[in-house]
């Protein structure tokens, strides 16, 4: 186990299993025994890594049908499993001292969408067609803290405060949980004095490039980590193009990918 990226390792499963709800089978007429959660999770990761269509998930892999994996992904996302897993992994990184709270970095990235749907990302898209946007905030080392899905015509600065507020309370150390970095770095797309004041009101110092000034502000020395994290995110082929009509399913893939990146960093640093 562990040779393929979609095979769930023992150490990752030890963190996920306590978060999954257990369903008691009926004593009378119990029906067919459900597929084990670990095998279904392997199927979900297989789709995330390969971008295969749900209905074409190979049954010989033993991960169950595509619809079984889709339903478990939906149910686990509605139960908040991926968000809680992300918080657990962040707490472990924080306990090891590998979260850089001296600064955080925000940015966004467009992705293609080849299917429509009455979702927020679809309704707010204009121009040549639906083009959802991923909004990401990381710590100073590039660890993803939160990710948000919106429509493609959403201005970057409008998601600045929601991104800051989406960062969970990270435990792992003695004292109160932490969720705010000292300084926030962003490019010119976030340049607005009104939002600067609101960032300061949250106890964070804004370091945002000014519009109309020459390039070479020096902020790229700190901002490059979020670009690298986007490269990691879009290394999962399912996130390069949005195929899901439902925004919650794509958001589930996004949060799960952030969990995998955080777990990867946990293994590297610790």
UniProtKB/TrEMBL annotation:
Ranges for domain Transposase IS4-like:
104-260
Q: Which Pfam families match?
A: DDE_Tnp_1, DUF4096
Positions of the Insertion element IS402-like domain = 8-86
According to the record, the residues making up region (Disordered) are 117-136
Q: Give the highest taxon in the source lineage.
A: Bacteria
NCBIfam families listed in its UniProt record: transpos_IS5_3 (NF033580)
Looking up PANTHER family in the UniProt record yields: BLR1914 PROTEIN (PTHR30007:SF1), PHP DOMAIN PROTEIN (PTHR30007)
What is the official name of this protein in its record?
A: IS5 family transposase
| Species classification | Bacteria, Bacillati, Actinomycetota, Actinomycetes, Kitasatosporales
